[in-house]
Write a structure and sequence with these properties.
The structure is a single chain. The protein has helices spanning about 1-20, 25-40, 50-70, 70-90, 100-150; strands at about 165-170, 175. The chain is mainly alpha-helical. It has one domain. It has a two-stranded antiparallel ribbon. The longest helix is centred in the C-terminal third of the chain and has 50 residues, at about 100-150. The two termini are about 55 Å apart.
């Protein structure tokens, strides 16, 4: 009984994860909107904050989108964050050009970190689904073990149901059924 309830809980968790993983449209929308929204909020601080600090805040946005969305959404968020970092925080402002090499490095690192985090988040989600599924299988095994504890029947269950006997090869290459004599051998 406990194993059946555990299996139902596991299936519900897998179903919840599937709905979460297929909410790609919402995640892509967040990937497009969140970086530009945060960049707009940080815009008044452009004169007092270094570009590195702005990039770090944008990385947090990318990490949030990647953790809650899909791999594609994380990659889109990384691209969006790098683009809006370039547009709002590098000179010349409000153009998609970067003149300083340090800002180029920061933008490239922002993009690379975002892509790496997206990949790691996707892997973590996949491993979670595997762990949930394996927990369901383990619950089934425990349920079967509980049933065998309570079984009182003395009926012998074959260890390996098979219609044909297993055959091994003897030293001379002849076929020998396991536990028997070589085929074609005499009884004398």
């Amino acid at each position: 009984m406990r194993a059946a309830a555990s299996l139902i809980d596991t299936r519900q968790e897998v179903s919840r994860m599937a709905r979460f993983l297929y909410s790609g449209r919402v995640a892509i929308a967040a990937a497009l909107v969140a970086p530009v929204a945060v960049a707009a909020v940080l815009l008044p601080l452009r004169a007092s904050w270094s570009n590195t600090n702005v990039a770090l805040v944008l990385v947090v946005v990318v990490v949030a989108v990647a953790a809650l969305g899909t791999r594609v959404a994380g990659a889109v968020a990384a691209l969006s964050a790098a683009a809006w970092f370039d547009f709002f925080f590098t000179r010349p402002y409000e153009r998609f050009t970067i003149t300083k090499s340090a800002d180029v490095k920061t933008a490239v690192l922002l993009l690379l970190v975002g892509l790496a985090v997206s990949q790691l988040a996707a892997r973590a989600r996949r491993l979670r689904v595997i762990a949930i599924t394996d927990a369901g299988y383990l619950a089934q095994i425990h349920g079967t073990a509980e049933l065998t504890k309570t079984a009182t029947s003395r009926v012998r269950v074959p260890a390996r149901p098979s219609a044909t006997p297993r055959i091994r090869r003897d030293r001379d290459g002849g076929s020998v059924p396991l536990g028997g004599r070589a085929m074609g051998a005499s009884n004398g």
